[in-house]
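User: Could you check the structure of this?
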Amino acid sequence: MVQAKTEMKERARALRRAGRTYDEIVAELGVSKSSVSLWVRDLPRPATPSERLHRMREARWAPHRREQAIKRQQTKLTAANEIYPMTSRELFMVGVGLYWSEGAKSKPHRPKEDVVFVNSDPGMIKVYLAWLSLLGIEADRRQFRLMIHESADVEAAERFWADLVGVDVSSFDKTTLKKHNPKTSRKNVGEEYRGCLVVRVRRGADLYRRIEGWWYGIVVEAGRRSEQMSDLALIAIPCGVIGSTAVFGAACPGSSPGGGAQSSNEGPRPTGRGPSLYSRAAPAAPAAPTGRRGRAGLRLT
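Assistant: Sure, the predicted structure tokens are below.
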């Protein structure tokens, strides 16, 4: 009996020297953990391999990460529902901001009034095309071109973008290929990389001027509204907490997604029906208040 116990102890010590953990020695020898600890505690603790450390960390943090992932998704879904339904005026305003962020702009050193939008995000392209439709820009005025690295699957990317915008690949302008530089470490590789789609509006000089004017109007109104809101901050706080739909409800003047009351100075909202917002024969969009200093007499007609 004593000899068997001595042999078990020697095996446990040999396993410990080989880098095995207490749990692994217990499973190997079928003895208690306290016995293993008594036999090998004078030996140096073996270095834990990086892979084992990684597994231990993952096992520890996996439940927390799942919980956080669920919370993030719930927040995104709640926020998405706050947008529905989107009015024509809201899409109009989003489109102006979208273009001024991502579209081509005339510069003092390069005065060029072209309406060109470039992006790699399919969602951005969808919103932009919906905005062009709202403005009455017909399909025959839309010109598409792909820009992509030569090392990518060019034909697959062309098919993807053509399907997204609802045209045939043959209607695309000649694809612009970017030369591959092996010295650079690019992250946008693999099947998900589809380059950037260039959307140009033919005969777009007048539209560009209107976009610039619309953006100027937004800047002026935002500054005026900011001044008003700073004066009403103590009143506005009770309207709701950021992130709750109460912020957008009728209780808060100038609200939006929740369907609250329309601010008296915003003008009528387009319904999306009837003449185009961009049509010269139709009322100007958005309706520009007049007689107020600061708008510089801006009329978008």
